[in-house]
Amino acid sequence: MNGADTAWVLVCAGLVLFMTPGLALFYGGMVPVRNVLTMMMQNIIPLGIISVTWVLVGYTLAFSNNGNSVVGEFDAFALIDVDTPQFHTVAAGVTIPALAFVAYQMMFAVITPALLTGATAGRLKFAGWVVFLAAFSILVYPQVARWLWHPKGWLAQLGAQDWAGGIVVHASAGAAAIAVLLVVGRRRGWPNLRTSPNNLPLMLVGGGILWFGWFGFNAGDGLQANDIAAQALVNTHIAGAAAMLTWLVTERITSGHSTLVGAVSGAVAGLATITPCAGFVSTGAALLIGLIAGCVCALCVRLKHVFGYDDALDVIAVHFVGGVLGSLLLGFFADSSVNPVSADGVFTGGGGGLLWHQVVAIVSVVLFSFVLSWIIAVLISRTMGLKVPGPEQEDLDHVQQGSSGYSLSPTTTRPTAAGRAAADSSNSADRRDHPSPNHLVSAVVNAERIDGLRDALLMAGARSLELADAVVYTDKVRTETFRSEKRRIDFDDRIRVQAAVDEDHEEAVVAVLKRFGAEPESIYRLAITPY
């Protein structure tokens, strides 16, 4: 048993697990504010569902020492009797515990179907999604993993290569995303839908976690702490960095802006594209692969408008195209001098043999994942349902979770001590000597100092307050860009204040409203007619 290799694989298993909550933050930050919890839940639940199915049947179907070139047997059911596996992609001599390998591969199984939720954002019923996850993790993923990552697998025997999941993870998830999109269809209002991301800083945090976790995703796949692991780590980073730059350049040329969303998307595209190549190519080749990935994936974002499919967060352009592109480029750049277990590619003197094997593997996995995922999705759709009804799609957090992702609305802020004191004094016995309120003063103010506004109004003599979020039309148009789409916005967020006052305190209340930024033309005085 090699302690260093074991420790490295266990650390990498943790890094790959960390990618799943990272994906939840990445996708969660880009969906509308009323769907953020639902999106995150769809990404986190695979940790529960697929961890269980993997231990029960997924691992033995994929990596059983028995079985054939297509599917394993049940000799390792529930991990009751786990033999030392025939390790994939690496030379002989790997000496890590079988359970370390089980845990590491489990994390790949978990994150694979989670990737497709970005394509179907705003449409999936939670119960239907849970059933899809369980079915995919038993019927689709283990078979694909066996074909390419088990020495007996028919694609591995053919000569196809996939270092860490360009085909097994990204291509299969992308094909499943296309299949599910065909079943659930478009969001209500698409393609004229113009939803805004709720929190792009959150998206950046998620993207950073994905980049960090990708070092375990790629550098751990050799199952050894050696020079190939170091090469895979460097290749991973340089490809992500290069793809970020070319995505930004492409975005600048095509839309006029280089955006934060583009930077993170470009990095993820590069990371997905280098994944099948990471342990098989040189650093220079990884740089070229990243440069190609950023440009190609950025341009492919526009395909959804050409072909009319509603891929909400561009999973197909980033993950599917990235995984397929990287698997094809491996046929050109693979280098046996970097890793002796690899065949040589077209540019390293190996001819076109590896490239042909890669094409066969891509087509086989994409068709298999697409067909089975479509069948699973159709069966779920026609029984328990998979798509959320149109009217519910704009507020899934309340429909599915009964709560909101954010409790930051200024109108729900808790009162300060001064505000409570003023409210208490307004309800005291001596307040009964004040005249009854006979006017309602209404105004629109900025929201930045809402606590101070409330306190000042109560102290000025307001008898009751009603505050509500408001969106106010302005004559100033600003332009926002998201995924190369420009949106012209001429509304700003404000707070609508209505204060009941008597004549003695009306001027003081109006003065407070003006002090807090209310425009004179937005202040109205309405008479109160009691019942």
Q: In short, what is this structure?
A:
This protein is α+β, with helices and mostly antiparallel strands. It has helices at residues 3-28, 36-63, 98-114, 126-139, 141-149, 154-158, 166-184, 200-219, 227-255, 260-274, 283-300, 303-307, 315-333, 353-382, 396-401, 417-426, 450-460, 506-515, and strands at 439-445, 464-482, 485-501, 524-527. The chain has a four-stranded antiparallel beta sheet.
Describe the structure.
The structure is a single chain. The protein is α+β, with helices and mostly antiparallel strands and 531 residues long. The chain folds into 2 domains: 392 residues, Ammonium transporter AmtB like domains (Ammonium transporter fold, Orthogonal Bundle); 105 residues, Alpha-Beta Plaits. The protein is 55% helix and 9% strand. The chain is built from 18 helices and 4 strands. A 4-stranded antiparallel beta sheet has the order 2-3-1-4. β2 and β3 form a beta hairpin. The protein is elongated and about 90 Å long. The protein starts with a helix and ends with a strand. Belongs to the ammonia transporter channel (TC 1.A.11.2) family. One of its GO terms (cellular component) is plasma membrane. Pfam families: Ammonium_transp.
